[in-house]
Each structure stands twice: as C-alpha cells, then as structure tokens.
Amino acid sequence: MSLDVGVLSIQGDVQENILSAKAAIDELGIDGKVRSVKTPEDISQLDGLIIPGGESTTIGQLSLVNGSLKVLKEKIENGMPVLGICAGMIILSNTASDRIVGKTDQPLLNILDIKLERNSFGRQKESFEADVSLDSINIPKFNGVFIRAPSVSDVGSDVEILAKFNDRVVAVKKGNVIGTAFHPELTKDISLHKYFINLVKSFKN
Ligand SMILES: NC(=O)CC[C@H](N)C(=O)O
Prior knowledge:
This protein has helices at residues 15-28, 40-44, 56-65, 68-77, 87-92, 191-204; strands at residues 3-8, 32-37, 48-51, 82-85, 93-98, 102-103, 112-118, 128-134, 139-146, 151-155, 160-165, 168-174, 177-180. It has 205 residues and is α/β, with parallel strands linked by helices. It has a single domain (3-204), classed as 3-Layer(aba) Sandwich (Rossmann fold). The chain has a seven-stranded mixed sheet. Strand 8 and strand 9 form a beta hairpin. The longest helix has 14 residues, at 15-28. The chain is globular, with a radius of gyration of 15 Å. Pathway: Cofactor biosynthesis; pyridoxal 5'-phosphate biosynthesis. In the presence of PdxS, forms a dodecamer of heterodimers. Only shows activity in the heterodimer.
C-alpha cells in the first residue's frame, strides 16, 4: 500500500507543506509520496490532501473556475482526509467574513459547519507565534505560527474543537477533516503533519 498525498497548488504555501508531509511519511516509515496537485484529474487520484494557507478568495475562485472545487467536495465527502491550513480552513467552512473588509462572497466548500472570521488577529504585520495545545489528538504543545489568521466564531455541534488561543477557536476537526488557523508547516515540529498522515493511512486501510 502506497499513500498518494497531495498539496493543492492553486495558490499559496505549497513547498513547506510538501517537505513537512514527506518528513512525516519518512519518520512514520510509511510508503507514500507527496506531490503538488492542481487539476480535478490530479485530485481525483489522491488518498489525502493538504489545502495550504494563502489567499482564500483566490484559491476558492481559481479552483471553482478549473473545476477542482467540485471534485474536492465529492472526495472529502466520500472520506478523503484533508488538512486545511489558514486559507485552507476558510475554504472548508460554510461562512466567512472579513474582520477588516466585512462580508466576502467567496467560493467555499461547505464541508465544516463553522463560521470563520478572516484576518481575525489583524494584518500581515500583526503576525505572531504562540504555543497552542491540541490535547485531544495528543499534541499537548505546538508552536502556532499565525499569519493573517482566521478564528472560528461559531462551531456546529458535530465539529470538535482541537485548540483555542486567547479564547478563540484556532483548530477544529470533524471526522476526516482538520482545520488549523496557524501554519504547522512553518515550524520544525512535524507532529501535526504526522497526525494527518496517520489519518490518511487509516482511511486508506
Ligand atoms: N496565511 C493565510 O492563509 C492567510 C489567510 C488570509 N487572511 C485569507 O483570508 O485568505
């Protein structure tokens, strides 16, 4: 069994995620590859997908236009594990508004019943790092890198809260779907990518 893991490379932080996911696969001793994916054809073959941070309006719009959004939704609803990071978590949500510019009509996947406040902690220059705890998935301390990060203002009853920072929800999970407001690929600790790869492995089995 060989895992086929993709990083959506429509726009955003692709390379660091490929490296972190590869490192996770190696450290776990799992047979698998990680590649950047863009088209509906690429996506349809995957066992797991990372939707990276970037600009959620651009990622959403371009993946709507090239047909990826539809395939993504089908695959995720059929059980493919997905890790949505920052803009990636926004894409997975069903409602997003921007703290600075207000309501945005952007294409979303409507997979996670969460309401997102985009740019919840301010603009690029207000980026920061802070330790967060994801106790329920056995990651008690993780260095969270927050870059124009969203926070989750409403969480549906079927969505598990994985982490909070300053009373704001910054990581969630529902079955095969994980969303983080911070960037796990920008820190040396690959435990979140390892958790995700294990999830991909268990869904493939
Ligand atoms: N680092 C990020 O992914 C930032 C997300 C960006 N603020 C957005 O709303 O799309």
